[in-house]
Design a protein that fits this description.
Glyco_trans_4-like_N; 2 domains; Rossmann fold; Glycosyltransferase involved in cell wall biosynthesis; six-stranded parallel β-sheet; Glycosyltransferase_grp1
Amino acid sequence: MKVLIAHNTYRTRGGEDAVVENERRLLAEAGNEVIYFEKSNDVVNSFFSKVVAAAFSIFSPISFFQLVFLIMRTRPNVVHVHNFFPQISPSIFFACRLMGVRSVLTLHNYRTICPTAFLMYNGKIETRSINKGPWWAVKKRVYRNSYFGTFFLAAMIDFHRRIGTWRSSVDRFIVFTEFSKTLFVQAGFPKDKLFIKPNFVFETARPLASTAGVAYLLYVGRLSEEKGLDVLLRATRALKDRGMKFELVVVGDGPLKDSVQSEGETLKYLGKKSSDEVVSLMRSALAVVMPSLWFEGMPMVLIESFSVGTPVIASNLGALAELVDHGETGLLFEPGNQTQLEQCMEVALTDSTKLSRMRANAYGKYAERYSAESNIRYLMEAYK
């Protein structure tokens, strides 16, 4: 099969970029021919370029004709789109329809529904865009604190909802969980076009990280309010005040970096680490903690953790509640509930029998659902 993958990369490499790289490699290793069409936000750096990018995010004639000519030249069987915002734009789906090529869109986040992209505003879940549309967000300047940027993003969402782009111009949507599928159906996406395919990671034989005999729990991710770091830090301090001996190791960067660094002996802050280093740290951790206050999509951190047999302690919310089997592949707690989080952390620190069982189950879940071998089957089914 010949697959054309289209992706607008992010200025700072994130989980979506990693997913695209993994799927390109997966398809190629399975014997498919992969063509890659990429736009980069790095070129959007002047005021004029930002104005043009914002206006063309609704429909880019440049990307439209680039895709038409690329499809004419390469004749792919399917065009698989990941992030189209802002430079590729939904014009790519009209190019596919014009050329008679099947199109597939992976819905990594909720940007086709809401300008926040995460259904979250001011630290709280915000779902009004699902039923009432995106225009409330303009006044709140939810996109980079900009009226201008938020206006064009809301216009893109509203325009394509009104003309039926998602109903008539995209052949299939890939979502990661049943939870996200339900939200997109509520927002008007055609249920019969939504296909559940989880993300995956390649299994690797990385060496164990050295922990010098110190038991530790691990947080990996953006250091920001919606990730629930505050409750994790409070729970850690409370457990240490009760005399429990362990480390909380924190990996990542973000707006709360200074606050995290000021915690002193409460945690061990490692900053940003490479993918190999992160997975090595996961392998030696008792558990990975994900105290998110928002729905999440399909966190690569969770899949990487399962791939090395490390259970996950997560908020009982959104996709995480679906991905973690409580007591089997990890532990769930009420979002923001410090007492419940302390209890989950204490189980990981003290109940070696239960932890051993969860480790085995976590790896088993990875092999069944999130391995390369299982994912290529899902991907081929999505392309049919």
